[in-house]
Amino acid sequence: MLLRHFLPRFLVVLLALVSGTLRAATFDLTSASIAEINAAFDAGALTSEKLTQLYLARIEAYDKQGPSLRAVMVLNPNALEEARALDAERKAKGPRGPLHGIPILLKDNLDMVGLPTTAGFYALRDAMPAEDAEQTRRLRAAGCVIIGKANMSEFASGAALSTLGGQMLNPHALDRSPSGSSGGSGAGIAAGFAVFALGTDTGGSIRGPSSANGIAGLKPTMGLTGRGGIIPLSLSLDTVGPMARNVADLAAALTVMAGPDPRDPATKEAPTTSINYTDALKPGALRGARLGLLRDYMKGDPGVDAIIETAVAVLRAQGAEVVEITLPRFVIGLNSGLYLAIRDPEFRFQIEDYLGSLPREDLPKTHAQLIELADKIKDPTPEGWVRNQNRLDAYKREAKAGTLEDGPYQSALTDGAKIVRDNLEWFIATEKLDAFIAPTSIRPAALIKAPPEGTTTGGSSNGSATHLANITGWPDLIVPAGLTSNPRLPVALSFIGPAFSEARLLALGYAFEQALPVRTLPTSTPRLEGEKFEY
């Protein structure tokens, strides 16, 4: 020890190399976690500016050219300048925290000063917000570099298509959908365009794209993450959460995102003390856990079911007890029917409140104007705008929805939601469950070209379990579970728990991910030169 103390530093390093105690670390842009990026920052092997350049190069190669995924709506022209400033701050003062210098994507229904907030609708292409959304503000304050805005299903609903951004593609299979509505966020993270992205979820819009693109995602508890500065779809159901390559990065993002928002009354229900969700991550968290398998949401696809059965076997091998849960038929029926009963009338009226707040008089102000403007796009325009028949049909359906004072809406919002929540709580208490588990999507990513009218894919008629978390306001964590064969398409497992159980769900999902690491880089977006190096 005395010898080591007095030897010059270079000799200490040399001795360590000879003895094998110091080994070169490998950095791989396409798989690096936030912790691994910070290790490269700390070693002086990487800067935020260089990291941002690498991500911008991937976007240029694979979103603008190559497979042309159309995952990114618009880039932040100041991203490199902001990254350089964060590098200088790190050098002068040290990092603000784990997210200092981390490049991210925002879904294009979140406000960011300096870029338009369009929700994918061509008539909002010049709608510039006066202030950042709450989540934009929080992530900027934590030191994130917002690299750009992600394409999305128009007004966060329908197919993975928008009049302004076009049809998004799944990087795992270019003839498949990345799912919606956070399709650009899901495809962008799967393709390696940023470290993590934000999505919004009203009826599965974080979870469907996470599953379809083979990444991790979290639909948080209603009220845990503030929604100020987000274009609404249905304020009784809307949530905002992170999408990332791994569970640990979700935990790091959620630690910054969770907390009160003066513009969102729902956050008054959130815990008043801040939580570091990264602290909850334990590889052995499955030991002794009790999980309720919702088999009602299986039998949609044999390939998906086979992967879920393997996942269940892994959970049991890690020490979890998995019990079969059969939900009452009336709960399944209520769950599937309540979503549109709440969402349609809320969007019809709440979007007008939002549009009315926009200062420019040349922007649409009413739901009726959205229909009129959408119907004007018959064919692709010289600007690149495309017709979105799926969303146009939904606009027309919404126009026939009742008001927010009507009995059916009020009953769905209160009585119906309470019945679903009460039944799930009963199973949690009676079976002493930590969480429910189910396939996130009962089938793998769908073909973009829809099957002919009148055809059916068969299988389960119960739909997906995703609406359970929206109707109850509960969190739902998505973890990749495997890939089907021929074609190889991602499948994910959902961990659904009671309100504000994110720490427990992240622990369970992290332990599952460590036991079954299956995330893979899509073949359409391979590693570029310079993205992998030793230091």
What does the model show?
This protein has a single domain (26-445, 460-524), classed as Amidase signature (AS) enzymes (Alpha-Beta Complex), CATH 3.90.1300. 38% of the residues lie in helices and 13% in strands. It contains 16 helices and 15 strands. The protein has an 11-stranded mixed sheet with strand order 2-4-3-7-9-8-13-14-12-10-11, sandwiched between helices. Helix 6 (134-141) links the parallel strand 3 and strand 4 (145-150).
> What's the mean pLDDT score?
94
CATH fold call: Amidase signature (AS) enzymes
The CATH class name reads: Alpha Beta
Number of helices: 16
Q: Main β-sheet, in a few words?
A: 11 strands, mixed
Overall shape: it is globular
Distance between the termini: 27 Å
Give unreliable regions as ranges: 1-18, 452-459
Rg over alpha carbons: 23 Å
Structural class based on helices, strands and sheet pairing: alpha/beta
Number of domains: 1
Across the major sheet, the strand order is 2-4-3-7-9-8-13-14-12-10-11
Provide the descriptors you would attach to this structure in a database record.
535 residues; alpha/beta; Amidase signature (AS) enzymes; 11-stranded mixed beta sheet; two-stranded antiparallel ribbon; 38% helix
